[in-house]
Amino acid sequence: MIGGIALETIYWYTLLGCAGIAVFLVLFGDIFVFDGPIDPILIVPWLTFTSLFGYLGEHLTELDSIFLLIVSGAISTVLVFLLNFYVRVPMKNAQSSLSASEKTLEGQIAIVVTPIPLQGMGEIQLKSVTGSITRPACFYAPQSTTAKRGEQVLIIEVRDRVCYVTPYEGMLKI
Question: Any stretches that span the bilayer, and where are they (predicted)?
Answer without folding.
Answer: 12-34, 66-87
